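DATA SHEET
Item: assembly model
Revision: 1
Owner: S.N.
Input lines:
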Amino acid sequence: MRWRLPPLHKKFLRHLWRMKWQALAIVLLVAAGVAVTVMTFSAEEALRSARATYYAQSSFADIFVTMERAPLTLARRAGMIPGVTAADPRIVANGLSLLPGFERPAQVRLISLPDRDDAALNRIAITRGRAPAPEALNEAVALQSFLDATKLRIGDDIQVTVNGRFVWFRIVGAALSAEYVYLPDAASVMPDDAHNGVLWVTRKALEGAADMHGAFNALAFSIAPGVQPRSIETRVERMFAPYGVQPVVMRADQPSHAFLEGELKELQTSGTIFPPVFLIVAAALVHMTLLRQTEVQREEIGLLKAFGYTDLEAARPFAMTAILIAGLGAALGALIGAVFAGSIVDIYARYMRFPALEPRFHVAAFAVAAGASLIAAVTGATAALGKVTRLSPATAMAPPRPDSYRVSWFERIVLGRSRGLLARLIARNVERRPARAALTVFGLAASVALLMGTQFLFGALDVVLDHTFYQRQRFSHQITFSLPRGPEAADDVRTLPGVMSFRLVRITSATLSNGARSVRTAITGLDPGDPLQRPLDATGELAPIKPQGVLLSKALAGKLGARPGDFVTVRLHERDRRVAAVVVAGIVTEYSGLGAYMDRRVLNTMIGEGDLSNAAQIVLDPLARGAFYRSLAETPGVVGAQSRDDVMATYRRVIAEAFRTSRTYYAVFAGIIAFGVAYNAGRIALSERSRDLATLEVLGFTHSEIAVIQLGEQAILAVVAVPIGLALGWLLAHGISLGYQRDEMQIPAIIDLDTLRMTLSVYGLTVAAVGCLIAYRLWRLDLVAVLKTRE
Amino acid sequence: MNGAAADTLFDVRGLTKVYRGAGGDVHALRGVDLQVRRGEVIVLLGPSGSGKSSLLNILGGLDRATAGQVVFEGQDLAKANEKALTAYRRRFVGFIFQFFNLTPSLTARENVELVTHIALDPMPADEALALVGLGARMDHFPSQLSGGEQQRVAVARALAKRPAILFCDEPTGSLDSETGTQVLDAIIHVASEVKATTMIVTHNVGIADIADRVIRFSDGRVHTLIENTTKKAPKELTW
C-alpha cells in the first residue's frame, strides 16, 4: 500500500499553511537573531584567524622599545635576557613627503630592514616587486596601502625630509606588515592611507639619513611562551635607561594590534547584546501565536481527544510548529549571517591589510544561536502546550460562551463617563488580554530600542567631531617638530605662508598613576588663556589651565579613578625622567584619546628644560594651504602636519564606507522585529474579532469605521511602545557605548535629533505597512461566511 | 406613483444568484419574483440550500445578485456598489442573527449604542432595551446574559435605529421554545412599534403562524406564497 501522511500530520501542515505569514514573520525574527550571531562571530573569527596566521608567518614581536640612540652591541645583550627568544634592532625615522596630486604632505616612517632576514621579527611580506638590494642606498619597499592610495608605482622616486635633510628613494616593491595591518592617522585615528606611509630601506641607507651609524633606536622582542612580559619590561628599561628609552610598548598597546583588538571587541559586543533581543521577542510571538491557535482549534482538539488521541498526540503539532519555526529560522539565519559576514569581511579588507583575509563560518556560534532559538521557541510554546494538554474533550466540544469582559479600573479612571464607544472597545480589548498587550508593547519597544541603540552611533559621532574639532579645538592645523625648540620657533611658524594665528604647545609622553592604577599617555602643555585650545568641563564651561595642577580627560580620570583635588603621580619619559605629584585641577570632556593638560611653562619646568615647545597649533588661511604645505615640506625639523578638514573628511569617508553597511543591516533587523510583532499581534486580534467586525459591517459600519476599531487598538499599542522603546534604547545605547569604548575613541550615548527621526521613521513606516496589510485582510472579510460560523 | 407601488417596499424581479465554484456552478436563486409590502411580516420557509438565505442576503445588502433586479425606494440594489450597500444597510436595515453576534466587550446598552451612534433618527438605547424587557440589565456584558437575553439585546440593537426592514436569520435557532417565543414576541412588538417590515428566515414551521404571508422556497424558486388569514401572536405559538 502507498504510504500516506497520517491525518494528524496533514491537519498540522494545513494549519501551519493557514498561519504561514505569521509563522514566516517569526522565522524571520529567529533568522535575524541567528544571522547577527553568525555574522559578528564569523567576521570576528575571520579577523582573528587571519591575524594569528599572519603574526606567526611574520614573527610579529611581543614587545616594542624605542630609545634615542643605542649602540648595536647592546641589541645582542638584550637578546640574552632570560625569556627573550629574539631581539631585533632597527632604525626608525619620521619625515614628511609632498607627493604629486596631494596638497598636504604625507607623514612617512622609514624603517631599516634587517641584515639577515631569517632572524628578524616583524618580517614584511613583499606583494609586488622586490626587496631593496642588500647594500642599496636609495631603494625602498613601500607599504602597499600607501602606494595604492597615492597612485605611486614601482619605479617611481619619492623624496622625504628627514631631520632637515632631503633623502630620496626609488620604490622597488610593495609590502604588507603585521605592524601596519591597520595604520591609523595620528589625528583622526582613522585610516588615511595617502597621508601615512611606511618605507622599508636598507640599514645602510638609514644609517646615513638618520645619523645612526653603528646604532639603533628601536628594538623588537619576541618572548618564549609562558614568560611574563612585565618581567622583561623592567630589565629592558633598566638596560636602556642611559640611552633615552621610552616606556616599553607591549603588543597589546601596539597601535595596529590594539585597533584590531578593539574591532574584535566591538564584534563580540554586537554579537552578544543584540541576538538575545531577537530571540526573546521571537519567544513572545510564538507564545501569542500558538496560544491563539489553541483557541481557534479548540473544538478540533476536543474532537481528537474524544476520538481517543492522547494529550501528547494532541499537543505534538504545537511543539512541532515551534521546532519548525526555530529550525527554519536558524537555517535561514545561518545563510544570511554567512552572506553578511562575507560583506563585512570585505569592508574590513579595505582597511586591514592581511595577506589573506578569508570569510569564515563560526560553527560554534551558529550552534549556540540555533540551540538558543530552539529553546526560545519551545519556551514560547509551553503555554499553548499546557493549554492543549489540559483541555478536556467535553469543554472543547461545548460552544464557547462570549468572552467575559468587565468595566476596568483603567476605564473608570481614564475614560470616566465619556460615551466614546470606540475608546471603550479598545480599552477593554487591551485589558482583557493584558499579557498579550504587554508582550506586544514589549516586542515593539524592543525594535525601537534596537533601532536607537544601533543608529545613535552615527549621530553621536557627529557630536564628537563637532565637540572635538570646533568647540574644543579652534585651530585648523597642527605641525609637529622633530625635537623641542626654543622661543625662536615662533618666528619660524609666523613666517609660514597663510598663518593667521598660532600657539606653541609642548607635548610630552608620561605615565600617570593613582595608587595601583597607571596609564601611559601624553601631557599637552598649553599657555594659560590659549584661545585655540579650550578644554571644556562636563557642563560645557571653559576649564581654565591653572599654574598648578593637571586637567584630565574624563576617560583618563576614569581609568585612574582620580577626582578633582586628588594628587596623581606623573612620571615623565623625557630627559632625566622626573617624577612629580600633581593635583587634578579639573576633569574635561573629551571623546578621543586620554588627554591631560597643564600650563606649558610648569610642564617644561617639570621636565627640567626652559621655554620649549614641540608643536604649533595654527589657524590657517584656507586659501593659502597649498603654499603653507609646500613650504612645510621644505622646513627642516617638521615631522607631522595635521589638518582639521582632512580629519573631518577622513571620518566622513570611512564612516560612509565602513559603517553604512552594518547600519543598514541593523535597521533591517530592527524593522523585522517591528514587522513580526505588529503583524502577528494584528493577525491574532483580527482572527479573534473577525466575527465581531463582520457583524459591525453588516450593521452598516463602513470599512473605515471598522478599520479604526481594529487598527486603533494596534495603533495605541504601537504608540505606547515608543516611549518605552526610547527608554530601553537609551539604556542599550549606554551599554553599546561602554562596550565600544576604546582609548582612542569614546562614543558617548548621545541621541541626536537625526537618530530619533531615523528611529521613529523606520519604526513608523514598518508599523504603518503592517497596518495596511491588516486593513487589506479586513477588506477581504467574508461577511456572510463569518456570520454563519459559530467560531 | 400609484397606490400599489407606494405600498411596496421591495420589488424583486427575475432575481438569480449563481455561486461559481471549482466543483461547478450552484444556482441558489433561479429567477425569483416577489413584492414585499410595507409593514408586513414575512416568514420564509424551506430546506437548507433552497435559496431563502441567499434571498435574505441580497435583500439585506450583504451580497449581490447575479441577475435580475431588487428595487428598494426606487434604487436597484442589484446594481448598487459596495459603498451604496453599506449606506443602505446603515440607514434602512436591521439584522438579527442566529448566534446573536453581540460585541462581547460592550455592555447591552453599549451594543445598542453602537448602532444608534451611526443612525439618523434612532430611539435612545435605554428605550429600545426597555421595549425588549431588559431595562434592568442594560449594564451587563453579553457573557453575563442568557441566550434569550442576548438575542433580545440583538433585537433592541436591530430596531433602535428604526429600520425600514428587519431581517431575522433563524432568530430562535439557538434558543429553547419558551425563550424563542419571548424573542419573537419582542421582535413583533418592537417591529410594529417602529413600523418595520419584518422578514424571518427559519426552518421552524411553527413560527409561520405569526406571518402575514408565508413563502416556501424550494430549489431556488418561490414554491408557494400563502396569505395567512389566521395570524397569531407569538405567545400563542407552540413548537
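QC remark: The mean pLDDT of chain A is 88.
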